[in-house]
Amino acid sequence: MAKWRTRIRSTFERFFPERQIYHRSAGTVNYISVSPWQQSIMALGALAVALWCLYATVMILLAPSSGAYGAGSGQEVARLERWVQQLRAQEALNKSLLEERTDAFQRATVGFEERHENLKIILDELNGSDELEVSALRGNGAAMLVEASIDEADPRQSRDEIKTASAIDVVGVRARLERLRGDQSNFLDNAETLAVERAERARGVLQLTGVGLNRIGGDESAVGGPLVDMLALSSSDIDDPTERQFAERIAQVAARLAESRNYENIVESLPLAQPSSVDLRLTSNYGLRADPFSRRSAWHSGIDMAAFYKAPITASGPGKVVYAGRKSGYGRLVEIDHGYGFRSRYAHLHSITVSRGDIVEVGDKVGLMGSSGRSTGPHLHFEVIFQGKPYDPSRFLKAGQHVYEG
Question: CB of 261 within 8 A of CB of 227?
């Protein structure tokens, strides 16, 4: 029995293989699939019409032309003609419905293609070549210390459970559209989750520096995110509830990506790396200490780090050199502006290898360790300043352990 079923099914699929109807419009090629069962139903309908036409023709030809019998036959012919006309009308209606569904499928396809184009913008923002390559939060694999979470004005939307193809008893176009909707929803969920995780990681690093998060970046204009050009993302201008919800979802994810990129840009700009390419040892902490000259308590606005004489001193973060020369008490000094209100200072240098106006990256040499100015021996006096106020550089360097390789 199974063998006969297999043969019958094979013969059926050979006569009615799955076909695609292609349609090209405005340079876009779309298609609609016609399943074997749909073809068989259409073939049976066409066969029925042909048989009725043949039957009506035979009856007309064989009917007598006179007498009472002829009158009765004429009525039968008229009835058959009405049936034929009804069948033809039904055929025209079916053809019209098929064309209408084809147009609807084409419009749906164009709409989903437009959605995908907007989703690509989100994907490009997530996978940009400059995402975190220079000073990514990859570090040396150390665990990220996160003590803060995103302060959200609106909670993240709950994820609707997406039905899989096996759970939906549909075939053809409808099943493909359902799968496409599910893929788009899953993509937005994953993008939002990744954006929140990235923002939380960056915020955790910023919190380790000891500078209030609400104070960082408040006066900067270089804040941006992905450009999402989808119906102007104005939900009030969209009539379809599904498309309005999708537009709002895109805008929400784009905003989270902009937020995470803003925090990451700040982290990438901070002086978090060790200020030398050689090992340094801490010789004096930040804060109150006994002054090495007067032996009285005095405030130390940075930390002192020592190595060997003429050890290379490097930029702790990217930025622009705003001072390079001698300064009272500091000796030979290099000061770098990192943006967002942050500056770093490298003092008591033996010599300076940069000039004012130079743009430096992390690890670029700015001078050599020395003992110029108010100093008792070769060392580096390292300061970090935010909006004119000094902060403990040790906290920045500890935060940098989760950003840069040691």
Answer: no
